[in-house]
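INTERNAL AUDIT FORM
Audit reference: QA-55
Scope: verify that the stored structure record matches its stored sequence.
Auditor: D.O.
Record contents follow.
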Amino acid sequence: MFLLAAPALAPAGDAVRYVGSEACAGCHADEARRWQASHHAQSMQVASPATVLGDFRDVSVSHHGQTTRVFRKGEAFYVRTAGPDGREADFQVTHTFGVHPLQQYLVALPGGRLQALGVAWDARRREEGGQRWYHLYPDAPPKPGEPVHWSGREQNWNFMCASCHSTGLVKNYDLQSDSYRTRWAEMAVGCEACHGPASAHLAWARGGKPVAVADAGLTVATRQLRRLVFRYDGSNPIARSDGDPTAGQRAGEACFGCHSRRQQLTAEPRPGAAFLDDYRPVLVEPGLYHPDGQIDDEVFEYGSFVQSRMHRAGVTCSHCHDSHSLKLRADGNALCGQCHLPSRYDRPEHHRHGEGSAGAQCVSCHMPTKTYMGVHVRRDHRLAVPRPAQSARLGTPDACTACHKDKSPAWAAAAIERWTGRPEAATTPPVAVLAGRRAGVPLAELLSAEYPAIQQAGALLRLAGSPAAADAVARAARSGEGLLRLGAARALAGLALPEAWRIGDSLLDDPLRAVRTEAARTLAAVPAERLPPARRERLSAVLAELIASEELAADRPESHVNLARIHAARGQPQAAEQALRTALRLDAGFVPALVNLADLYRANGREADGEAALRQAVKLAPAAAEPAHALGLALIRQGRRDAALPELTRAAMLAPDNGRYALVLAVAQLESGQGEAALATLAAARTRLPEDVALLRTQLQIERRLSRPEAAAHQVELLRLERGFAAP
């Protein structure tokens, strides 16, 4: 079932209801006027001649042998393209999605699904290269049946997009029928998306006054979103706030739920609630961010902004963006001049570029860009100082050479040294060090207040195998920073289970849902009979929260794999197998489900069935390391070492930063009579993972086994001096 319009009022709990933005406009006319012209108000609209920007005058878009035709039938808009079954058909466009710099179009499919088409309209001006149709996957257009095809799960509006492009959304997914009955209170991002359902406020405004005047009935009163005021005091060229920076940090959480890459933890997130109580964000991790914390994959603004000094000072989104129109509060460098004295910073002596040039713009150096979805240029919100020497060391994008394309980062670093009279600081973010890019830095230096909490949290995930891991995770678990405690909760998975319980037990009582449920994910494996009754009940209660959060994404196969792991950890193999089979019912080719199913088969002595599942996984995902590694282990267990070595080798090559893969390969090489190859494997891995003591210990054992006493003695000395460990 699919609704073109939602009910006028949608429930938001027992006490309050959504009333719609029109009800707000009567008293808040100026705010409503600014909002109506914003991207929020136009984030999703019914397709009509007034809302569709694209050229639907019977236009054909050809791309790698695929042709998509867009056309109209009267007032209705259509697309002719290959559908889910691969056959061409006509599909009606029901909604527009977004407005600038691109506009996407939604098509209704059976089961209440809305799907985003693979062709989009470039809404930029013609002189900017816009006013054209283009394909969102220019290099390899997806085929029907693939998750990223317009009809696949990665283009599904109900899960991927709806909660942030609508107000008061309830997904209403039914697992048994694999269908949706999605509803919303307002189609686009309205007033109540930020302020919360306003029925009590409306009653107060109309004279009913059923609530205290202090909050006027709003879930998120204006005072809760008020930004700190920053003023120049004459002693510093950077303005200072007139209050507690945490107030500004808290205000930003009204935006973070939609401007972050995260997992939703509650069915109806509450405006005004702590961000980490309703959402679990990704941390600064490889594949999502560059080793220095710059944006890489599509992570939106939150993870970058909380790395910034601005965030720590209490600057929030609305200091730069008008809350209702979303426009910048000032043009050009005047925006930064609100807090950074122009006479000091908006001068050639500071930016070293000609007045009015692109290089003289603050954002050119401090907010470099990356383009997503073909035309959407987004700025990195770390607001960081360019560090070209560091970029050269880490192989990360450099803001200087993004403009000076004919130059190198070394050239830029030399220029900065000439200007400042000193070389670039050598400090390297912990995410970079623990990505294996530089060795010899004590962990105590990495987990310090010098670095943003989200960077430290990301670093904790890389500590598995380090002798200091448990102490570092324990310190983070006691932090007052929710993000750092979240990093500790996730890092529990890299510790031995008794150590994980010793540290993680207290995290089960954390006030933030993201922290306590992530701790429970690892602690689920603690045998219940070994726990005091009170702690057993607490773990059970938090596990129920964790399971409920995973079931919110029951339309996704990965959620069922996560549930299977929880059930397996709790000693419930039948429930685990059922969850994995549900994942495969949703997607028969979902590789993580096949890998986990093979592990269940192994536990039940069904090695042949497990091997078959793993071979299917390897065939489906030849570039994935996990199935290749699992297949190699399965073959080792069957005594087929010669067949296992190529799989283990491939896994180690595909995931060079996985120390366990390298270690297992080295042991298999040794047992196959390839001792020198085993040592070479470990040596290469240790250059990338200098903190992984397991690699060093294994190298020592192999040196001894190969009767190389001098080399073994050298490894013993490394263990003693560099890692503080007694040699085995």
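Auditor finding: record pair retrieved intact. The chain has a mean pLDDT of 90.
Action required: none
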